[in-house]
Amino acid sequence: LHRVVRRQRQMCIRDRNNTMEDIPGACCITTPLEVFSHTQYLKKDSKSLPDPSIKAIIPPSGPPIGGNQAVILGANFCNSPNLRICFGREVIPAEFYERGTLICKVPPRQQGPQSKIVPIHVSNNGQTYCQTTVTYTYDD
To answer: What's the predicted TM-score (pTM) here?
Structure first.
């Protein structure tokens, strides 16, 4: 279960003798929040992690020497010690920011004629990488 909830006005309730009752005149206004199930984090089997998906990389291009910071936007990213991003064939560690955002340092461009534009892939377990059409372009 995963969904984004917008700002809401919520009623405050209290438990009185195992019965929930409204607190008259009390309410709170929330800031936007993200709701998701923690069930996947309770399982010890890394194969139970959800498949990540990528929507975009910001910026979509950069210098061939790498080293610039990039943000990967997507879904189902897990705060795992095996979280990885693959730029073409170059695998690097990813910094988990939140379920839909990763941060990384772009690796240097690999040599070869097809290394200017590389596909980006993410893995929550360091073994299985997502399928994607998102690419990163190394500038000339």
So the answer is: 0.65
The Cβ-side half-sphere exposure at 19, using a 13 Å CA radius, reads 3
Among 45, 44, 119, 38, which Cα is nearest to 86's?
119
| Four-residue CA torsion sign, 69, 74, 79, 85 | negative
d(CA 127, CA 105): 20
Q: CA 131, 137, 140: angle at the middle one, nearest 5?
A: 160
Tens-place pLDDT, residues 80-125: 999 999 999 999 999 999 999 999 999 999 887 778 999 999 999 9
Q: What is the rounded distance in angstroms from the CA atom of residue 25 to the CA atom of residue 71?
A: 43
Distance CA 62, CA 31 (A): 34
Per-residue model confidence (pLDDT) at position 31: 53
CA dihedral over 19, 11, 38, 36, signed as positive or negative: positive
Q: Is 48 helix (H, G, I), strand (E, B) or coil?
A: helix
